[in-house]
């Protein structure tokens, strides 16, 4: 008798096989299908035409995409292949095999609807008592764009290329005039050469126009900040106080030689990251401290996080009717400004935003010392500075780093999402929502089965 288990790849089934028997009961693929089957997909189904051939149901395509993003399979071609190769994908697809064009078109078409579906998933998490929306931790991470930084052109380089191309066009026109007086020249297709350079000149002009549009917004913000500084100093003088520091200088306006635009994804930006400078977007996430679920996710072109508090507060306001209002917002020093602290205070959310870098290990005397008396002040920044020095404030703020940063770590390292598949701010914003929803379902599965 052989000591090995016998196998037969041509074994016939006595009864038709069922994909329902192929996965464990607590598998992530089953959980995602169960949750998505509870979602209201009427906004998606209404957009399908009643004529033509039958389409795959949005619930099936959405489940394939969400499970793909949750497990590191982002390419529509790879998802199509996985419906043949992977038991989990075959289970989700119910033994059907949507092609990659169908999956890619579905992802691109319904990006706007993903915001509503993201909130519906949060509602299911709340019904399962997994999210309370109490303390919220806010942070951002750079996600690479679907474009190379080497495809970026600076305003100064564009002007050099324009001058070079105009010289070449003039030289070709002169050569064409000489050719007209002599026999036909077969060495060059002069009209095609001229047309090619004129097309490049038009592309460069379009790039300059986009840079100018972007610079105009930057100049407007810089002028507003300059006007605010001047107004503050003038108010101090009227109050009989001498303003500190140097007088503010009026900002320089107009495009600078280093202002850049990417020819592959013009809406992405060069941003600093741990890997150096990358062509990227800035993904923002507000994470519930207790459950580590993402309650709001936005995407911005701004490298700096300082302008992202109010947009995130607006996202949280949208959740108030169904989820309530968070008590506390935790954020690092990159988000600090007087305006941001006041914006939180106006919405009756306690801000705990770092004022600077504090020592990680306080001396024993400071840690054991009693809290200082609360200042008698209406200034929200003064009150926040005091709260950060109290034992309770230090304990609350200490949760920031161990909540939102692990979320980004899971998204980038475990799920493997480090680069967008789509291009443009609107498309990538929808894809970022899809990533956040996939993360939440993965986290909800852990909380439900753990």
Briefly characterize the structure.
With 450 residues, the protein is of the alpha/beta class. The protein has helices spanning 28-36, 42-45, 58-70, 76-85, 87-92, 100-109, 114-127, 155-181, 190-238, 309-318, 320-323, 338-346, 364-368, 380-389, 391-401, 404-414, 425-449; strands spanning 135-144, 152-154, 260-262, 269-273, 276-288, 294-300, 328-331, 350-353. The two termini are 43 Å apart.
Structural category is alpha/beta
Which parts are unreliable, with pLDDT below 50 for 5 consecutive residues or more? none
Q: Biggest sheet: strands, sense, closure?
A: 6 strands, mixed
Q: How many strand segments?
A: 8
Average pLDDT reading = 85
Q: Describe the oligomeric state of these chains in a short phrase.
A: single chain
SSE order, one letter for each helix or strand: HHHHHHHEEHHEEEEHHEHEHHHHH
Q: What count of helical segments does DSSP give? A: 17
Overall radius of gyration: 29 Å
- C-alpha end-to-end distance: 43 Å
CATH class of the largest domain: Alpha Beta
Overall form: flat
CATH topological fold name of the largest domain: Nucleotidyltransferase, domain 5
Proportion of residues in β-strands? 5-15%
Proper CATH architecture of the largest domain: 2-Layer Sandwich
Count of spatially separate domains: 3
The percent of residues in helical segments reads: 40-55%
Protein described:
The protein has 450 residues and is an alpha/beta fold. It folds into 3 domains: 19-110, no CATH class; 132-148 and 267-429, Nucleotidyltransferase, domain 5 (2-Layer Sandwich), CATH 3.30.420; 153-262, no CATH class. Helices cover 50% and strands 11% of the residues. It contains 17 helices and 8 strands. The chain has helices spanning 28-36, 42-45, 58-70, 76-85, 87-92, 100-109, 114-127, 155-181, 190-238, 309-318, 320-323, 338-346, 364-368, 380-389, 391-401, 404-414, 425-449; strands at residues 135-144, 152-154, 260-262, 269-273, 276-288, 294-300, 328-331, 350-353. The strands form 2 sheets. Strands 1, 4, 5, 6, 7 and 8 form a 6-stranded mixed sheet that branches. A two-stranded antiparallel ribbon has the order 2-3. 29% of the residues are buried. The model has no long low-confidence stretch (mean pLDDT 85).
